[in-house]
Amino acid sequence: MDYSKTLHLPETEFPMRGNLPKREPEFLKFWQEHDIYRKRLQKREGAQKFILHDGPPYANGKLHIGHALNKVLKDIILKYKTQNGYYTKYVPGWDTHGLPIEHAVIKETGLNRHEMAPLDLRKRCHDYALERVTEQKADFIRFGVLGDWDNPYLTLAKHVEVAQIGVFGQMAKNGHIYKGLKSVYWCPHCETALAEAEIEYKEVKSNSIYVRFKAVDLGKHAPAGFDLDHAYALIWTTTPWTIPANVAICANEEIEYAWVVIGDAAFLMAKELVAGTMEAAKITEYAVLPDVMTGKQIEGLVFRHPFYEKRRVPVILGEHVTLEAGTGLVHTAPDHGAEDFEVCKKYAAWGLGPLGTVGPDGKYTSVVPGYEGKFALDMNVEMIKELAACGALFAKGSLRHQYAHCWRCKNPIIYRATEQWFSSVDGYRKKALEAIDRVRWIPSWGHDRIYNMIRDRGDWCISRQRVWGVPIPIFYCRGCGKPTINDDTISHLQEVFAVEGSDAWWAHDEKELLPPGYKCPECGCEDFRKETDIMDVWFDSGCTHQGVLKHDPELDYPCEMYLEGSDQHRGWFNSSLLTSVAINGYAPYKSVLTHGFTVDGEGRKMSKSVGNTVAPQEVIDQYGADVMRLWVSSADYQGDVRLSPKILKQLGDVYRKIRNTFRFLLGNISDFDPERDAVAYENMTEIDKWALLRLEQVLETVTAAYEDYQFHVMYHAIHNFCTVDLSSIYLDVMKDCMYTEKEDAPSRRSAQTAMHIILDTLVKIVSPVLSFTAEEVWQFMPNVSGKEESVLLTEWPKLHKEYLDETRAARWTEFLSYRGDLTRILEGARRERKIGHSLDAAVTIYTDGTTYDFLKEMEDRLATLLIVSEVRLVNGSAPDNAVAGEDHPDMRVVVEPSQYDKCERCWTHDVTVGKDREHPTLCRRCVNVLENK
Q1: pTM for this structure?
Q2: Element (H or E) spanning 108, and its range?
Q3: With 90 as the cut, is the pLDDT of residue 767 above it?
Q4: Of these four, 28, 32, 728, 801, which has the most CB atoms within 10 Å of its CB?
Q5: In the chain, what's the furthest Cα-to-Cα distance?
Q6: How far is CA 568 from CA 55, 367, 576, 798, in A?
Q7: What is the pLDDT of residues 536-556, one digit of tens each?
Q8: Residues ≥6 apart with Cβ < 8 Å to 93
Q9: Is beta strand 248-251 parallel, antiparallel or unpaired with respect to 256-262?
């Protein structure tokens, strides 16, 4: 007789191999055809809202792995919150305006934007953006992210633009908008102002020079024994190209300055920096004159520009001057430095201010004779040569340092003094800081980071010199030149934009864009011209709390959460906060969660040039989206998140272990009907109750991890539960019962009840992460009354406090520590070839005292729990060949081959094998199962 056919081996069509790249699209189709996202929302109609507002990615280029990290984190949170009863409408968005898209269009087409009509360029940008949205949307959906993909928000949408100019108008009405001359970040290649969030830093090698300015008027502070022709102020700079723009020398009023004699000349510099300066200039023979002056005392001393005989250069005072580097005297060019500009404003009465040395294209203007039309950043060497030629170059060198670059074209930028539109943050800074205190920041250090940024930031430059964006909705009176913006002009524009979008600004003349018969409030003139600048793209996305959250009654303003990378403290979190506070007095979000950046396995920034990038589609094509989602959950995202082929392979192994756990559970409940065969908890076996106890502990841990957004804690808890508690202990022990006992034996039904509960709970708690696999498992699970058509429609598992028996938990924790020692000893015996399979073993345990008493209570179950054929417990001393336990050295063990025959059916060695005439190769237990079948 073939006894193997009498065993209840696991039966399931759930595949062992995931084959996720091929199978996942089938579940995407299932979710779409059954409208699972919409059904989720319908189930939660009227429930408390949890709205996560999507930070819009730029609609240009392909998605990178950082996009996957971001979108999957959002999806995990929303799927969990939905299971917990929240209404979680999710509207994905895209940033579709601004320099990134305009730059991409120009690069792809090779067109010259200066030769194009604005509406032509805007049409190309519009079409390009929508093409990228379509491509990126397909990728995001492939990630397994659920949302209202048929109705995403785009910043180019008419209702979003209408809301945006409304925000601008309200800020202007509140006195928070002004036009002014300032030194701002400027990209000479893109020919536009940039915000701080549009700057990235790269290491560069720069020239560093020391320049001497000849004295003109030193008052009573001339160096003793030196006339004006032999007295100089010494400055240091790393931007020689800005020397033509110099109008002043800045000192700090508290720093001490001295004259340093070198040969027949005296040089003014900070006393504390003399040694370092001389070393840099390789000068060994010098003397410091005894007279010391504070910065306050030298204020007003006058020197001469090294190039321009008639330009007088006074000493002024600024707090930004330090002793960290240089000479303590700072070259000051208000055209090309924010601090320079601001400090010169304080000395406006002295005639200090920008000269207009560089034009929008980064080239010198006629203010720099001899160099007009030359690209300023290329002129460092030329300026050094000219300084040397006129005797003003004191010393030169080079240094490596971080320098600002344009985020889009990747070229170095400059500061440039221009007239721009600004938001005066001082008008609402206090309210913004108060709002920050009322927001939950995850991690908590995010509070201090954005608080300090808002506290210390200057005014927000919101104008850009481009055409692809929302226009600054301001008109200038041709009669008096005054700018005009008020409720009437904004309301009329909103009506026009609602029909035509912001293209109307370029498609119509001023009279068509202003209310009929509109006159200048200042002079009564009816003739106007439009502003030509557009708004900063951060202003676009920063206003979506009005154009999206407030626009849609199914959303919420303020919403529950914003979630983006940590760089958005100075980006989207910042701009959204400022616009919301400026018009309404509160933040647009109740909580903000930030994640780090993706890096390679060695912690290096991912770069195409280095060749260490990992594209989301590559991961999906090889491993599937669920493995990528598992990676997102496995990492502590609060820091940088590592990813490499090695890490992916490890995660693939983890995924297979979790999948195999699901498969084993499904296979063992194939003949189990939960509604007919389930065993009440009080009637379950001890080991099944322990398994449910561990399940409950894991459920508590995982629930808390989801609530605290600590997904890596959830990942480790589930991984450990599957591989240790289930695979290595419970499921391994239960194989004998599940395979060999009678189909409806109470012990087997008890185990199946526990397994079904474990399976039902496990599939639900992993579904926010392993959404595809959870759906696949769900479709193979037993059909019971009320079963949802998709795992994504299920409720979060309810806690069962009755499973948490502290006495049982303590008893099993202690037993498993003994089992660990016994398992190690059995493994040693197998390595020494004393036994083959563990069921070949007869184990004798020698111990005494409390250990003996504890194990004696479980003696009748020890063989089953250790998966051996015999266990004998001896209260007394052990023979010399006994092996001591590592954690319990008072327990000594002898492992020997069992002397009994092996049962052909269950493989247990037992004294009853051979006693039955009809089944001579079976043990009594197996005979009874067959006779009672």
Answers
A1: 0.86
A2: helix 99-109
A3: yes
A4: 28
A5: 128
A6: 9, 39, 10, 37
A7: 999 999 999 999 999 999 999
A8: 54, 55, 56, 152, 153, 154, 155, 544, 548
A9: unpaired
